[in-house]
Every structure is written in C-alpha cells, then in structure tokens.
C-alpha cells in the first residue's frame, strides 16, 4: 500500500474508456506500482491527458478501494503534477488565488473601499450555472438561450437560461448543465468570486474563458488588402501549431468512416472522434482569452482588469489550456476592445485587425515574445502609427471655467401668503387651534452668502432637509441661464459666473434630461455624434452592460435611471456640473463606485462640479476639494480639520 503524504511517479492509462459523467466531471486513471488509481477531477482538465502521460501523484488521504480493485480519490484527496518533456506542471488542485483589490482615491492614494476576490478554475457544476447566469446579462432572451442542459435520467437535451424541468422525467433532479454558448471542447474557465460580500451580492462576479489560439489568422490593412497568415510572419510558426482544429480531422475522418460505415453512422460517430483526436494533438505556445464577462454592477471598477490579470497568471503557471508547451503569448480578439481599454490597462498591445475587421491584442509572457512584439510595433508601417494603442479616451478635457464662480452678499427670501378662505370649516378650526390664520410668511433661506468656487474644483454641499442646498444650486444656475423665474434669482446680492460656462444640471423632479423612446446608446449618440464616446460615457456612469445600451429609459430600474441621467449630463460635456440629491437611489457600494468614477472623470476633464448629498460614504468616495455647509441661512466652506474628519483622514 502506498503511503499517505508521499509522492509517487506513474502514468495515465485507459485513455480510451468512457470517463465522463457529464462534461464538468472526469475520472483520470493512473497506474502506480501495478495499482490503478481513479482520480476524480474536472472533465475540462481530465480530457487533456492521454495514455502514457507521466505524472506525479501525492496521496493526501486514505483512498477507497472499489469492488473492481481500483483505488478512488476524491477532489480533496490528492495532488497531481503532469510532465511535459522535463517540465513538471501542477494540475491538481486547481489554480486558486485570493487577492485584495483596493479602489484608490486618485488624489490621496488611499483606499476608498476594497474588494476581496478569489480567482479559481471552475470545477463544480454550480460554477458553470453561475457562468450561464453571467452570460444572460449579454445574450439571454426568449429567442436566444445561453445554455444547453442534459437529463441523465432519459438523456434528453434542453435549451434554457436556467435549470429546466425535464419534459420526460417531470423533474430537474437529474438535469445538469451541458454546454455554455460559444465554448468549445477545449475551453477552460476561470471564475472570480467575492470572498466578502453582502447578502444581496452575487457569489461569482466575473469569469474568463481560455481556449487554444484560432487555427488561422489573416490581417486586414486600412486599404482593405488582406495579408494571409499574419501571425507566422511575426512569431515562430511552432508557437501556434499543432492547434485544436477538429474541423480538419472531421473532414478526413468523414471520408474514412463513410467507406466503413456509410454516411448516416459516420456522421453520428464523427464529431466525438474528431474532438478527442484534436484534444490529443493540440499543443501550442499561445493561449487565447476568448471571453471576459464581468457582472454589470462591478464593471468600470477595475474588476475586468483584475480578472484578466488572474487569467494571465493562471495561463503562465498552469500552461492553460493544454498543459503542455510553455506559454509564450496570450492572444485576444475582441471588438469591444475598441470601446473599453481594460485589456490595454493590463498590458496587452494592439497589433492588427483580422480579415473580418476585429482587433487583435497580445500579451507577452516571455522576453522573446516581448521583443518580437516591440519589433513589429517599430517596423510595421501601420503599427508604428498606433504604437500598440487601440482604445483612446474620447472624452478629453472640456476646458476649465475661465474664472471663479463668485457669490457676493447673496441672500434669498421666499415668501407666500397664507389664507384659510378656501379651507373647509373642520380643517380651518384645527389650523386656528394651532394659531394658523391669514398672514404673509417670509422664510430666509440664505443670508449674506460670500463664496468663491474655483475652476475645476469638486464641491459637495451638505445640510439638513430644507436648509437651502437646492436653492444654492438654483441661484448659480439662474445666474448662468438668466432664467425668468423668481426661484432662480437672489433677493439681493450678486453671483458672477465666467463667460465660458456650459452648465448641465439635475434637479430631480424639476430639471432633468429628457428621454423618449430611443435606446440609451441612441440618446447619448444624438448628443455626442460619436458612438465610441457614447459607450465610454455610459461605462463611466456605471451602465456597462450591453443589454442596457439598447434599453429604453422607462425600462430601467430607479437606480439605473439615476445613472442614465448622469450619463446624459456628461454627454453634454459641460464645464460646470450641478447635481442635487446625487446617488440618492443607489445602494451603498454602487453609489461609491459611481461617485469614484465621476470624481475621476471630472478631475481629468476639468469639469467644475457641485454635488448635493448627505451620504458620508459617497462624500468619501468623491474626495471633494471643499465642502459647503448650508443651514440656518448660512453657507460656508468646511474648515480644514472638518474636511479631514468627514473624509476619515
């Protein structure tokens, strides 16, 4: 009997036997000293082994011996390494890393809040159900289904976005997820989980799918010319070969099987055989990140970058997906890379467009790969112009206010006449009991206010309800627009505003962007006349889901509507932004994310910003330059020590 805690060298056997209960579960059989060990593992990993593969096995727990004489080891019972030539590659347990990702204040560099994340390879069926759930944010609808399910009871296949009830067995107890849209037999999946989360937050917030590189790649030049086999002109041919390409094997095997079995039987047997032969042959020095999906609530917060960084480490350490050759490059082909720079922020370089017009980016894992990429970017006449950059922010700098906004001795008095003439006798008697009679009421909201708001400053206005916060915004807006409404005019004093002020304002229920039946993307495009800029603004406002791009305003939730209004304001590219009740309808974490993004954009673009909010966590995420306290007719800037206390410094 082998000893627990000791490592033994053996080889994989029985590669031709049926090893899979369903795709996500596999049994790998290993022979050690004339004993057969059946290792339970993910089917997406087990499928890459072939008979004769040399392995090292460390037994962590006493194995169970079956009636067939084999020893069985469950997921947590062993550790396994695979040899490729003289290299030893850890296979099991799977890649699993916990990391903290802080969201930093761009001014102070301090963490505003921190995510604690776990990145690990998907091995449980629940992991793949979570992946299907994430996919629905992009693709699922009544017409389009993202997952295929199989009933082990009767073998029936079903298409559904969530676990379905088998129509034959009338239960979902034996129904398992079988396939994820777009994945291939060669696909490996990395999920990102929230280690510390609120009860309402999802467990899995992102996933990355990794595949072998595509078999062929041609390049489209700006003039439409197609350059064939572009990768082999830049990188060594053997980095991309032999690749997972069952279609080629399919054609060859179809001819052979037709001669032996006839067309009908040949077609039924063909794909399974082609798949296994392709898996056994595939052995490249390149991995392809073919899918990155982040939950909409967590995009634009650096988690897309974090997910890709995890995947790069996983690929390099475990040689994903094949676990054979050392990986030299990570490849990605993604149209969305034109509109979102998270691949580039991780370190990917844009090299060219495919023949179909999709951008291709590479991340070097070795020095020789980095040198070849740098050489191409310097020598290629087209690449030397873009220098490896694809997604460049189009929002830019709006141009700061030419001078300060100055309030000189500003006062505002609201008055109205109270009469009981049209009140019913019963109600009148109640009011009179409290001393309420016919009279003129005057309410002093602001008195002799002197403030200077400098160009580019981010200001937060705080105060009790009814203290005059909204009035302050109205008066500034009225000074700019010369609106003929007493609510927007000071009772006395003067408000001086720069000539180049271009204002965007949100006073909920009073002044708001107008949305009609157009989609959000169309609404922003009408304002910007630039589809890439429209997407960028939606992302910065916290609406990073493609489903929401095509949604209409009335279809959104209350919190999404608030973010859509913010996006609409930003699309006007104002030099001055005024928002009342900022983030009032957002949960704490979402409010902090949106506040952080807005603060960052406003500083980068030079937008003078005045926000009204009562939420301390939002104020800390904004990190304002100044805070204005409003109350009892006064309005003053917070002293330095008060500002530090509020910001938690």
Explain this structure to me?
By secondary structure, this protein is an alpha+beta fold. The chain has 18 helices and 31 strands. The strands form 5 sheets. It has a 10-stranded mixed sheet, sandwiched between helices. β2 (20-22) and β3 (25-32) form a beta hairpin. α4 (246-261) runs antiparallel to α5, α12 packs across α13 (531-540) and α13 (531-540) crosses α15. The chain is elongated. The protein starts with 6 loop residues before the first strand and ends with a helix.
Keywords for this structure?
alpha+beta, 29% helix, 649 residues, single chain
Short description:
By secondary structure, the protein is α+β, with helices and mostly antiparallel strands. The strands form five sheets. The protein has a ten-stranded mixed sheet, with helices on both faces. Helix 16 (588-605) packs parallel to helix 17.
Which helices and strands occur, and which strands form pairs?
Blueprint: E1 7-12, E2 20-22, E3 25-32, E4 35-41, H1 43-46, E5 54-59, E6 64-65, E7 71-73, E8 78-84, E9 87-92, E10 96-104, E11 111-121, H2 125-136, E12 147-151, E13 157-159, E14 175-180, E15 188-194, E16 204-211, E17 219-220, E18 226-227, H3 230-234, H4 246-261, H5 263-281, E19 286-294, H6 303-318, E20 329-333, H7 342-346, E21 349-354, E22 359-364, H8 367-379, H9 383-386, E23 405-418, H10 425-433, E24 439-453, E25 458-462, H11 469-481, E26 492-496, E27 503-506, H12 520-528, H13 531-540, H14 546-549, H15 558-571, E28 576-579, H16 588-605, E29 608-612, H17 616-622, E30 626-631, E31 634-637, H18 640-646
Parallel strand pairs: 4-7, 19-20, 25-29, 25-30, 27-28, 28-29
Antiparallel strand pairs: 1-3, 1-5, 2-3, 3-4, 5-8, 6-7, 8-9, 10-11, 11-15, 12-13, 12-14, 15-16, 16-19, 17-18, 17-21, 20-22, 21-22, 23-24, 23-26, 30-31
Helix pairs in contact: 4-5, 12-13, 12-15, 13-15, 16-17
């Amino acid at each position: 009997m082998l000893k627990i805690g000791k490592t033994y060298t053996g080889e994989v056997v029985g590669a031709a036997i049926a090893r899979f209960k369903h795709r996500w579960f596999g049994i790998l059989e290993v022979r050690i000293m004339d004993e057969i060990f059946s290792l339970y593992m993910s089917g997406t990993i087990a499928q890459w082994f072939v008979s004769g593969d040399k392995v090292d096995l460390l037994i962590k727990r006493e194995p169970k011996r079956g009636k067939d004489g084999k020893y069985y080891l469950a997921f947590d019972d062993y550790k396994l390494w695979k040899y490729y030539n003289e290299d030893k590659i850890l296979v099991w347990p799977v890649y699993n890393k916990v990391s903290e990702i802080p969201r930093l204040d761009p001014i102070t560099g301090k963490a505003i809040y921190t995510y604690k994340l776990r990145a690990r390879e998907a091995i449980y069926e629940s992991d793949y159900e979570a992946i299907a759930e994430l996919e629905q944010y992009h693709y699922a609808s009544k017409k389009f289904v993202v997952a295929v399910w199989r009933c082990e009871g009767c073998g029936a296949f079903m298409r559904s976005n969530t676990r379905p009830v088998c129509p034959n067995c009338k239960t979902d107890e034996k129904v398992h997820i079988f396939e994820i849209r777009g994945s291939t037999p060669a696909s490996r999946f990395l999920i990102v989980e929230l280690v510390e989360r609120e009860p309402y937050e999802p467990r899995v917030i992102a996933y990355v799918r990794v595949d072998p590189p595509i078999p062929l790649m041609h390049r489209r030049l700006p003039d439409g010319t197609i350059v064939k086999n572009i990768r082999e002109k830049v990188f060594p041919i053997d980095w991309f070969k032999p690749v997972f390409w069952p279609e080629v094997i399919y054609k060859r095997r179809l001819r052979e099987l037709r001669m032996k079995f006839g067309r009908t039987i040949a077609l039924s047997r063909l794909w399974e055989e082609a798949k296994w032969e392709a898996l056994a042959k595939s052995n490249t020095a390149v991995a392809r990140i073919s899918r990155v999906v982040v939950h909409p609530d967590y995009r634009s917060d650096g988690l897309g970058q974090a997910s890709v960084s995890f995947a790069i480490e996983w690929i390099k350490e475990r040689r994903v997906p094949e676990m054979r050759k050392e990986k030299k490059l990570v490849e990605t082909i993604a149209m969305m890379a034109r509109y979102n720079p998270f691949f580039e922020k991780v370190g990917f370089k844009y090299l060219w467009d495919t023949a179909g017009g999709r951008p291709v980016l590479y991340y070097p894992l070795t020095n020789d790969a980095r040198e070849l990429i740098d050489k191409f970017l310097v020598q290629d006449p087209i690449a030397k112009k873009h220098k490896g950059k694809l997604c460049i922010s189009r929002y830019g700098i709006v141009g700061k206010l030419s001078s300060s906004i100055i309030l000189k001795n500003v006062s505002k008095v609201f008055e109205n006449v109270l009469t009981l003439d049209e009140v019913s006798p019963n109600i009148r008697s109640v009011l009179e009991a409290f001393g309420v009679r016919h009279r003129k009421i005057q309410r002093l909201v602001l008195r002799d206010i002197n403030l200077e708001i400098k160009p580019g400053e981010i200001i937060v206005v705080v105060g009790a309800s009814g203290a005059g916060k909204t009035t302050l915004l109205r008066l500034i807006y009225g000074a700019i627009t010369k609106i003929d409404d007493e609510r927007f005019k000071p009772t006395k004093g003067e408000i001086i505003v720069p000539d180049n002020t271009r204002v965007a304002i949100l006073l909920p229920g009073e002044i708001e962007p107008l949305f009609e039946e157009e989609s959000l993307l169309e609404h922003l495009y009408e304002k910007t006349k630039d589809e890439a800029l429209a997407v960028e603004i939606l992302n910065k406002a916290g609406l990073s889901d493609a489903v929401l791009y095509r949604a209409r305003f009335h279809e959104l939730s209350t919190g999404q509507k608030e973010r859509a209004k913010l996006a609409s304001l930003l699309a006007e590219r104002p030099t001055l932004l005024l928002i009342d009740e900022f983030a009032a309808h957002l949960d704490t974490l979402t409010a902090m994310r949106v506040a952080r993004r807005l603060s960052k954009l406003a500083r980068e673009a030079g937008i003078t910003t005045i926000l009204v909010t009562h939420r301390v966590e939002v104020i800390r995420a904004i990190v304002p330059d100044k805070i204005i306290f409003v109350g009892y007719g006064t309005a003053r800037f917070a002293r330095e020590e008060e500002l530090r206390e509020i910001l938690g410094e």
